[in-house]
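Hi Prof. W.,

I finally got the Molybdopterin synthase sulfur carrier subunit prediction working! I wasn't sure whether to trim anything, so I left the full sequence exactly as given:
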Amino acid sequence: MDHIISVKILFFAQAREQTGQSEGSITIPQNVINAREILNNILDTYPKLRPLEHCVILTVNHVYMDLTSNVPVSLAENDEIGVIPPISSG
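And this is what came out:
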């Protein structure tokens, strides 16, 4: 049986606007999963983020994740995942 953990989600820029909040949380199996599976879990929990699905960047504890990689990501209770959409300047 997988151990379920809770991780904090931090929403930045347009992700914050889409969800209407600056942070939230998800519960996720602690077994090792890849970055894309983490994103899918976030999108299932916060469906308003779906328009950003193909352009968002995720971080775990301030370290960027590669959403195209199948490399496992190990999460621990209370880790922080950042959801960062493209940021324009001007």
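Helices lie at 13-19, 35-45. Does that look reasonable to you?

Thanks,
D.
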